[in-house]
Amino acid sequence: MKKSALRKDLNLAEIIALGIGTMIGGTVFSSLGMAVFSLGRLSLLSIILNSLIAILIGYNYAKLSTRYPSCGASYSFIAKAFPKNVLLKLATGYIALFAYASAISFYAVVFAHYIHTLLDIPVRIFSIVAIAIALIVVSVIVNMMGVKKTGILESLLSYFKLSVLIIVILFGLLLLHDNLSIKAYDAPITITTAIKGILYGSVLTFLGFEGFETMANASEESRKKHYVSKAIYLSLITVSCIYILTALLILFAISSNINKLSYVHVETLLSNVAFMAFGNIGKELISLCALVATISALNGSLYAVSRLVYAMSKDNILPGYLSKLNKHDVPYRSIILTGIISCLLIVFNQKVAQLSEITSLAFLSIFTITSFANLKVYKETSSRVVLCLLGTLSPLILMLSTISIAPSTLVPFVLWTVLLTTVGLIIFIINRYSSSLPNHARVIK
Questions:
Q1: Residue 7 DSSP code
Q2: What angle do CA 73, 79, 83 make, to 5 degrees?
Q3: Which of 14, 68, 261, 326 has CB atoms 3.0–4.6 Å from 332's, for a disulfide?
Q4: Which of 65, 5, 11 is nearest to 224 (CA)?
Q5: Please, is 376 exposed, middle or buried when counting C-beta atoms within 10 Å of its C-beta (0-12, 13-18, 19+)?
Q6: Residue 262 has pLDDT above 70, yes or no
Q7: The whole model's pTM is what?
Q8: Can you tell me the distance from the alpha carbon of 388 to that of 127, in angstroms, rounded to the nearest whole number?
Q9: CB–CB of 53/398 below 8 Å?
Q10: Which of residues 60 and 277 earns the better pLDDT score?
């Protein structure tokens, strides 16, 4: 079997691009619009809350990545903090695998919706599924062509979509400067309703902040140790500002043009707002940007999960053949496996909102466990206990809120988690048994 050490080739700008590329995916073009449409001004508080929670979780990831740089990210951090707890390592690794696969499905479905918007064709379930699966197949092929090509493409796509969003936001707010009000959402609400609304908005849009997990996956390939921690903070601040300003733009547009917007497919509400501000050029530009963003997020997620599977294979948690590298030094089998799982998720569920909620639930569980791991080893990582504790409790609260607000997400999440963990446990037992056999008793391939 071919063995190869990961090269420390990533600089700070490339790691930031990887994080932004994964974070600014389908959320800003889809879930954010749905949150603003449903919640109005409360959606701003949801985004601010998410920003604070993400920074708290990011603090734990930054500390762990600096102390234990590993391409396995959360899985490797759990393994370091709880070396004897095999089941916890298994669960974390497979939940992360499921989370990335679900995220890839979400990005692919959003991509399909925006293709329909750009080409102005009717939305059909079959066409959504077909386009989404086709995108995953293409992305898998691109990722198998080598990390250098993927990295260059990721940087170009990430900074392109960031530039487009900044232009649209600034010019959009400038064009709407005479109607910067949110009177359409001034109806009185109770405190309880407001809290529920804010938490629902947080659940719906938190997927847009999960990119720091991807940056942690790059810690083993970073040229310098501190690059990942810097990239986590810089990318989270950048993305938070973009999300808040985008939500403001949509909110102002809805409030001042409440009868002019089309709400048939709120998944593409941002493109409708761009049409109001810039005409067809704005709508097409946002749709193109959304396509670029979802492709970028797919690439980032596939990169991260391939590194996760690579780390798990080295620990015999997964079969060793999944870490086999092709001629481009890419663990192609792990990429193909993730693509298959993502396609299956799309076949079973094409709803953008539910895919977003399930994915958020999976990532929130990982963030909770990982932050708790940093709390356990806070002395080794030179972390502050209060920040570790807040980073543990905040995603747990959001996780419970997801289950409370959208209980239908719990069943598929639990089923996939139990299924994957059980399969993983069986594979682990088989690997342990095989390794304990004398050499002459092993099957030679």
A1: P
A2: 165
A3: 326
A4: 11
A5: middle
A6: no
A7: 0.83
A8: 45
A9: yes
A10: 60
